[in-house]
Amino acid sequence: MSPMTILSKIKKRQALSILILIIFLCALIPQYAVLRSSLALLPNANKNFLFIAGLCTALTYLLATFTYRLLAFKPLNFRRTFIVQLGAMFINRLIPSGFGALGVNFVYLKKESHTNTEAGTVVSFNNFLGLMGHLLLFGIIIIFFNTSIQDFKYPPISINPVVTALLILLFITVIVALYKVNGNKTVHTLRSFERAVLSYRRRKVHLLLALGNSILVTLSNVAILFFCMLAVGGHLSFAAIFIAFSFGVGAAAAVPTPGGIGGVEAGTAAGLVSFGMPLHTAIAAAVIYRIISFWIPLLVGFSAFIYCQRKHYFG
Known about the structure:
Elements: H1 3-8, H2 10-28, H3 32-39, H4 47-71, H5 78-94, H6 99-111, H7 116-144, H8 161-182, H9 186-199, H10 204-231, H11 238-254, H12 263-274, H13 279-310
Helix pairs in contact: 2-8, 3-13, 4-5, 4-10, 4-13, 5-6, 5-13, 6-7, 7-9, 7-10, 10-11, 10-13, 11-12, 12-13
């Protein structure tokens, strides 16, 4: 599947994405006053913390490059793989749930002498390690940093009952749609995963290093949100920020808009509010976090994607 084929799938998701954004706006409009006060905090954000957040963003792509090189069955050029990760990020911003990056990396690995099975194994195992790393960190925080998250409360954000009903209906629709698309592939996916595990039984050191890299990617993403929170005057522990970040990740997975637009912001802000942060500060932190981790890299990713196309990195 070529990157252009990936782009063509965007049209099939536009109707659903527009509907999700409309519902998100319906929930956001009643909070207009809070949003306006949040945006007023942006010009006064601490530039030093924002710079560090930017460095953490760049670090995530370097770490992702190392992970793919560790998991690959054939040697990968570091510079070329790094540029591909930037290009994959651009496509990932356009297609929901990470499918864009999966497709781009799959095509790139095939170009780098990997078979379909090998390319699929590397890509799927990369995602698996990312999930395992996140769950491992989540467990560590729950067990060893319980005192840091004991103030967690359900976010006191009220929304219109009609909006709530629409969100529930939308969620059910998405689940049904995903089942129809992927239901028949479940057995194939399990078999592919089994082959992936067997493929790495002789490369345990590489696998452990790749897991460590995946954990560092997650920590770097949490650090971006942490420094954005500090930039707008927030004061929460790193453990609490990790939980808030997990809220955003969960919202992005549940709401399949391109790049998680709307879902990540709402989930992240809700997570911050759950630990007692004022709503306007939480929204400001979430907005800056998305500017640094999403919108600015989007421009860089577009240039990288065009460069990859010209250099025929995708075949």
